Amino acid sequence: DPAARIESLRALEAAISASEGEICQALQADLGKAPLEAYMTEIGMVLEELRYQIRHVRAFSRPRRVRTPLMHFPAVSRVYPEPYGLVLVMAPWNYPFQLSLEPLIGALAAGNCVVLKPSNYAPHTARAMEALLNRALPRELVRVVQGGRKENAALLDTRFDSIFFTGGGTVGRLVMEKAAQFLTPVTLELGGKSANIFFEDCDWDRALDGLQLGILFNQGQVCCAGSRVFVHEDIYDKFVAEAVAAFNKVKVGMPWDPETQMGSQINQAQLGKILDYIDIGVREGATIACGGKRATGGDLDKGCFMQPTLLTNVTNNMRVAQEEIFGP
Question: pTM, whole model, 2 decimals?
Protein backbone atom coordinates (compact mmCIF):
# COMPACT_ATOMS: atom_id res chain seq x y z
CA ASP A 1 0.00 0.00 0.00
CA PRO A 2 1.73 3.25 -1.12
CA ALA A 3 -0.06 5.23 1.60
CA ALA A 4 1.44 3.01 4.34
CA ARG A 5 4.90 3.35 2.79
CA ILE A 6 4.60 7.13 2.70
CA GLU A 7 3.49 7.17 6.33
CA SER A 8 6.58 5.15 7.34
CA LEU A 9 8.91 7.41 5.36
CA ARG A 10 7.38 10.54 6.91
CA ALA A 11 7.76 9.06 10.39
CA LEU A 12 11.43 8.38 9.64
CA GLU A 13 11.91 11.91 8.26
CA ALA A 14 10.42 13.43 11.41
CA ALA A 15 12.58 11.25 13.66
CA ILE A 16 15.79 12.21 11.82
CA SER A 17 14.95 15.91 11.94
CA ALA A 18 14.29 15.64 15.67
CA SER A 19 17.53 13.71 16.29
CA GLU A 20 19.96 15.88 14.29
CA GLY A 21 22.06 16.83 17.32
CA GLU A 22 22.32 13.24 18.51
CA ILE A 23 23.40 12.04 15.05
CA CYS A 24 26.00 14.81 14.74
CA GLN A 25 27.49 13.87 18.12
CA ALA A 26 27.70 10.21 17.07
CA LEU A 27 29.42 11.06 13.75
CA GLN A 28 31.86 13.30 15.60
CA ALA A 29 32.68 10.53 18.06
CA ASP A 30 33.25 7.96 15.29
CA LEU A 31 34.88 10.00 12.51
CA GLY A 32 35.66 13.41 13.95
CA LYS A 33 33.09 15.08 11.68
CA ALA A 34 32.15 18.69 12.31
CA PRO A 35 28.39 19.38 12.46
CA LEU A 36 28.37 21.17 9.07
CA GLU A 37 30.15 18.26 7.37
CA ALA A 38 27.87 15.76 9.12
CA TYR A 39 24.80 17.53 7.77
CA MET A 40 26.17 18.08 4.25
CA THR A 41 27.49 14.57 3.67
CA GLU A 42 25.13 12.46 5.77
CA ILE A 43 21.98 13.88 7.35
CA GLY A 44 21.06 16.31 4.58
CA MET A 45 21.51 13.70 1.85
CA VAL A 46 19.33 11.22 3.73
CA LEU A 47 16.56 13.81 4.22
CA GLU A 48 16.75 14.70 0.52
CA GLU A 49 16.37 11.03 -0.41
CA LEU A 50 13.39 10.68 1.92
CA ARG A 51 11.64 13.68 0.39
CA TYR A 52 12.29 12.39 -3.11
CA GLN A 53 10.89 8.96 -2.34
CA ILE A 54 7.85 10.38 -0.54
CA ARG A 55 7.02 12.44 -3.63
CA HIS A 56 7.46 9.51 -6.02
CA VAL A 57 6.29 6.39 -4.14
CA ARG A 58 2.87 6.36 -5.79
CA ALA A 59 4.29 6.78 -9.29
CA PHE A 60 7.01 4.16 -8.73
CA SER A 61 4.52 1.59 -7.43
CA ARG A 62 1.92 2.15 -10.14
CA PRO A 63 1.61 -0.51 -12.92
CA ARG A 64 2.77 0.83 -16.27
CA ARG A 65 1.84 -0.24 -19.75
CA VAL A 66 4.68 -1.41 -22.02
CA ARG A 67 4.94 -2.41 -25.67
CA THR A 68 3.56 -5.85 -26.55
CA PRO A 69 5.50 -8.03 -29.04
CA LEU A 70 3.64 -8.68 -32.29
CA MET A 71 3.53 -12.43 -31.64
CA HIS A 72 1.30 -11.78 -28.58
CA PHE A 73 -1.24 -9.63 -30.43
CA PRO A 74 -3.95 -8.70 -29.40
CA ALA A 75 -2.72 -8.90 -25.77
CA VAL A 76 -1.85 -5.84 -23.67
CA SER A 77 1.34 -5.85 -21.52
CA ARG A 78 1.91 -4.18 -18.19
CA VAL A 79 4.73 -4.18 -15.64
CA TYR A 80 3.63 -4.52 -12.02
CA PRO A 81 6.27 -3.39 -9.47
CA GLU A 82 6.40 -5.78 -6.52
CA PRO A 83 8.48 -5.74 -3.31
CA TYR A 84 11.23 -8.32 -2.92
CA GLY A 85 10.12 -9.08 0.63
CA LEU A 86 12.81 -9.16 3.32
CA VAL A 87 15.90 -7.11 2.43
CA LEU A 88 19.31 -7.18 4.14
CA VAL A 89 21.23 -3.88 4.07
CA MET A 90 24.92 -4.19 5.05
CA ALA A 91 26.49 -0.77 5.54
CA PRO A 92 30.11 0.48 5.74
CA TRP A 93 31.76 2.82 8.23
CA ASN A 94 33.04 5.72 6.09
CA TYR A 95 29.58 7.34 5.77
CA PRO A 96 27.86 5.26 8.42
CA PHE A 97 24.59 7.18 8.55
CA GLN A 98 24.09 8.03 4.88
CA LEU A 99 25.12 4.63 3.48
CA SER A 100 22.91 2.82 5.99
CA LEU A 101 19.77 4.92 5.61
CA GLU A 102 19.70 5.61 1.86
CA PRO A 103 19.39 1.95 0.76
CA LEU A 104 17.02 1.34 3.68
CA ILE A 105 14.81 4.20 2.46
CA GLY A 106 14.74 2.76 -1.06
CA ALA A 107 13.80 -0.65 0.30
CA LEU A 108 10.98 0.79 2.43
CA ALA A 109 9.68 2.91 -0.45
CA ALA A 110 9.44 -0.27 -2.54
CA GLY A 111 7.37 -1.98 0.18
CA ASN A 112 9.99 -4.25 1.74
CA CYS A 113 10.89 -5.10 5.32
CA VAL A 114 14.53 -4.46 6.21
CA VAL A 115 17.26 -5.91 8.39
CA LEU A 116 19.98 -3.28 8.76
CA LYS A 117 23.52 -4.32 9.70
CA PRO A 118 25.56 -1.16 10.40
CA SER A 119 29.35 -1.28 10.67
CA ASN A 120 30.75 -2.01 14.12
CA TYR A 121 33.69 0.29 13.26
CA ALA A 122 31.33 3.27 13.79
CA PRO A 123 29.61 2.12 17.02
CA HIS A 124 28.27 5.49 18.17
CA THR A 125 26.46 6.07 14.88
CA ALA A 126 25.21 2.47 14.81
CA ARG A 127 23.65 2.83 18.27
CA ALA A 128 22.16 6.23 17.41
CA MET A 129 20.58 4.77 14.26
CA GLU A 130 19.15 1.80 16.13
CA ALA A 131 17.54 4.07 18.74
CA LEU A 132 16.19 6.37 16.02
CA LEU A 133 14.72 3.53 13.93
CA ASN A 134 13.19 1.88 17.00
CA ARG A 135 11.43 5.15 17.84
CA ALA A 136 10.25 5.85 14.31
CA LEU A 137 9.25 2.48 12.88
CA PRO A 138 7.76 -0.82 14.09
CA ARG A 139 10.29 -3.60 14.66
CA GLU A 140 8.46 -5.93 12.28
CA LEU A 141 9.25 -3.40 9.52
CA VAL A 142 12.88 -2.54 10.34
CA ARG A 143 15.26 -4.42 12.62
CA VAL A 144 18.86 -3.38 13.38
CA VAL A 145 21.49 -6.06 14.07
CA GLN A 146 24.63 -4.87 15.87
CA GLY A 147 27.92 -6.72 15.93
CA GLY A 148 30.96 -7.72 13.90
CA ARG A 149 32.13 -10.62 11.78
CA LYS A 150 30.21 -13.26 13.72
CA GLU A 151 26.91 -11.44 13.17
CA ASN A 152 27.78 -10.74 9.51
CA ALA A 153 28.42 -14.45 8.93
CA ALA A 154 25.15 -15.44 10.62
CA LEU A 155 23.19 -12.98 8.49
CA LEU A 156 24.80 -14.19 5.27
CA ASP A 157 23.88 -17.77 6.17
CA THR A 158 20.24 -16.65 6.49
CA ARG A 159 17.91 -16.55 3.52
CA PHE A 160 16.87 -13.04 2.41
CA ASP A 161 14.94 -11.94 -0.66
CA SER A 162 17.50 -9.28 -1.59
CA ILE A 163 20.86 -8.06 -0.25
CA PHE A 164 22.32 -4.56 -0.57
CA PHE A 165 26.02 -4.42 0.38
CA THR A 166 28.33 -1.39 0.43
CA GLY A 167 32.02 -2.00 1.06
CA GLY A 168 35.21 -3.47 -0.36
CA GLY A 169 35.71 -6.06 -3.04
CA THR A 170 36.97 -8.81 -0.72
CA VAL A 171 33.84 -8.87 1.43
CA GLY A 172 31.72 -8.19 -1.64
CA ARG A 173 32.88 -11.49 -3.16
CA LEU A 174 31.92 -13.30 0.04
CA VAL A 175 28.46 -11.69 0.02
CA MET A 176 27.94 -12.76 -3.59
CA GLU A 177 29.15 -16.29 -2.83
CA LYS A 178 26.82 -16.67 0.16
CA ALA A 179 23.86 -15.21 -1.72
CA ALA A 180 24.40 -17.64 -4.61
CA GLN A 181 23.33 -20.65 -2.52
CA PHE A 182 19.82 -19.17 -2.28
CA LEU A 183 19.91 -17.40 -5.69
CA THR A 184 19.35 -14.17 -3.76
CA PRO A 185 19.53 -10.98 -5.86
CA VAL A 186 22.47 -8.83 -4.74
CA THR A 187 23.35 -5.16 -5.18
CA LEU A 188 27.04 -4.46 -4.58
CA GLU A 189 28.33 -0.92 -4.18
CA LEU A 190 32.10 -1.38 -4.08
CA GLY A 191 35.17 0.84 -4.03
CA GLY A 192 37.78 1.22 -6.71
CA LYS A 193 40.83 3.12 -7.87
CA SER A 194 39.93 6.56 -9.18
CA ALA A 195 42.46 8.94 -10.73
CA ASN A 196 43.11 12.64 -11.21
CA ILE A 197 44.55 13.60 -14.61
CA PHE A 198 46.47 16.87 -15.06
CA PHE A 199 47.00 18.16 -18.61
CA GLU A 200 49.59 20.82 -19.42
CA ASP A 201 46.90 23.45 -20.14
CA CYS A 202 44.86 22.91 -16.97
CA ASP A 203 43.50 25.70 -14.78
CA TRP A 204 45.92 25.29 -11.84
CA ASP A 205 43.80 26.77 -9.07
CA ARG A 206 40.68 24.79 -9.99
CA ALA A 207 42.66 21.61 -10.62
CA LEU A 208 44.48 21.76 -7.28
CA ASP A 209 41.23 22.52 -5.44
CA GLY A 210 39.64 19.51 -7.12
CA LEU A 211 42.66 17.36 -6.28
CA GLN A 212 42.46 18.22 -2.58
CA LEU A 213 38.70 17.75 -2.45
CA GLY A 214 38.95 14.36 -4.16
CA ILE A 215 41.79 13.03 -2.03
CA LEU A 216 41.29 14.65 1.38
CA PHE A 217 37.50 14.85 1.71
CA ASN A 218 36.32 12.71 4.64
CA GLN A 219 40.03 12.10 5.32
CA GLY A 220 40.28 10.14 2.05
CA GLN A 221 37.75 7.61 3.31
CA VAL A 222 35.61 7.77 0.17
CA CYS A 223 35.04 4.96 -2.33
CA CYS A 224 35.60 7.31 -5.29
CA ALA A 225 38.56 9.26 -3.82
CA GLY A 226 41.13 10.23 -6.46
CA SER A 227 43.91 8.22 -4.87
CA ARG A 228 46.40 8.52 -7.75
CA VAL A 229 47.41 11.31 -10.10
CA PHE A 230 48.57 11.20 -13.72
CA VAL A 231 50.48 14.34 -14.76
CA HIS A 232 51.76 15.43 -18.17
CA GLU A 233 55.55 15.21 -18.09
CA ASP A 234 56.03 18.86 -19.08
CA ILE A 235 54.31 20.08 -15.89
CA TYR A 236 55.39 17.31 -13.53
CA ASP A 237 57.88 19.36 -11.46
CA LYS A 238 55.47 22.29 -11.22
CA PHE A 239 52.65 19.98 -10.16
CA VAL A 240 54.68 18.33 -7.38
CA ALA A 241 55.83 21.69 -6.00
CA GLU A 242 52.34 23.20 -5.99
CA ALA A 243 50.62 20.07 -4.67
CA VAL A 244 53.13 19.86 -1.79
CA ALA A 245 52.53 23.52 -0.96
CA ALA A 246 48.76 22.99 -1.01
CA PHE A 247 48.91 19.83 1.13
CA ASN A 248 51.19 21.50 3.67
CA LYS A 249 48.56 24.20 4.24
CA VAL A 250 45.93 21.69 5.28
CA LYS A 251 45.18 21.78 8.99
CA VAL A 252 44.74 18.45 10.76
CA GLY A 253 43.00 18.31 14.12
CA MET A 254 39.82 18.11 16.10
CA PRO A 255 36.59 19.22 14.36
CA TRP A 256 35.73 22.03 16.75
CA ASP A 257 38.83 23.97 15.66
CA PRO A 258 37.60 26.48 13.01
CA GLU A 259 40.96 26.16 11.20
CA THR A 260 40.63 22.40 10.83
CA GLN A 261 40.07 21.01 7.36
CA MET A 262 40.68 17.31 8.05
CA GLY A 263 39.60 14.96 10.84
CA SER A 264 40.77 11.47 11.77
CA GLN A 265 40.86 7.99 10.33
CA ILE A 266 38.21 5.64 11.68
CA ASN A 267 40.55 3.63 13.93
CA GLN A 268 44.15 2.59 14.59
CA ALA A 269 43.90 -0.40 12.25
CA GLN A 270 42.93 1.82 9.30
CA LEU A 271 45.68 4.30 10.15
CA GLY A 272 48.20 1.45 10.33
CA LYS A 273 47.08 0.14 6.96
CA ILE A 274 47.70 3.53 5.33
CA LEU A 275 51.14 3.82 6.94
CA ASP A 276 51.96 0.33 5.64
CA TYR A 277 51.15 1.43 2.09
CA ILE A 278 53.64 4.26 2.48
CA ASP A 279 56.39 2.17 4.14
CA ILE A 280 56.14 -0.62 1.57
CA GLY A 281 56.04 1.90 -1.29
CA VAL A 282 59.18 3.65 -0.03
CA ARG A 283 61.01 0.30 0.25
CA GLU A 284 60.03 -0.40 -3.35
CA GLY A 285 61.36 2.94 -4.59
CA ALA A 286 58.61 5.52 -4.04
CA THR A 287 59.50 8.93 -2.59
CA ILE A 288 57.60 10.87 0.08
CA ALA A 289 57.14 14.37 -1.33
CA CYS A 290 55.21 15.51 1.76
CA GLY A 291 53.51 14.02 4.79
CA GLY A 292 53.90 10.28 5.20
CA LYS A 293 53.44 10.08 8.96
CA ARG A 294 50.82 10.05 11.66
CA ALA A 295 49.96 13.59 12.79
CA THR A 296 50.94 14.05 16.44
CA GLY A 297 51.03 16.70 19.12
CA GLY A 298 48.44 18.00 21.58
CA ASP A 299 44.97 16.60 20.94
CA LEU A 300 46.29 14.76 17.86
CA ASP A 301 47.92 12.18 20.14
CA LYS A 302 44.44 11.09 21.31
CA GLY A 303 43.17 10.21 17.83
CA CYS A 304 44.03 8.51 14.54
CA PHE A 305 45.17 11.52 12.56
CA MET A 306 47.18 11.23 9.35
CA GLN A 307 49.22 13.86 7.54
CA PRO A 308 48.08 14.64 3.98
CA THR A 309 50.62 12.67 1.93
CA LEU A 310 51.97 12.78 -1.62
CA LEU A 311 54.09 9.90 -2.94
CA THR A 312 56.10 10.25 -6.15
CA ASN A 313 58.06 7.76 -8.27
CA VAL A 314 55.22 5.27 -7.83
CA THR A 315 55.10 2.33 -10.25
CA ASN A 316 52.03 0.33 -11.26
CA ASN A 317 53.12 -2.86 -9.48
CA MET A 318 53.25 -1.25 -6.03
CA ARG A 319 50.46 -2.02 -3.54
CA VAL A 320 49.76 1.68 -3.12
CA ALA A 321 49.03 1.89 -6.87
CA GLN A 322 46.96 -1.30 -7.00
CA GLU A 323 44.77 -1.22 -3.91
CA GLU A 324 42.14 1.18 -2.61
CA ILE A 325 44.03 3.38 -0.12
CA PHE A 326 41.04 4.88 1.73
CA GLY A 327 43.23 7.53 3.31
CA PRO A 328 44.60 11.02 2.61
Answer: 0.89
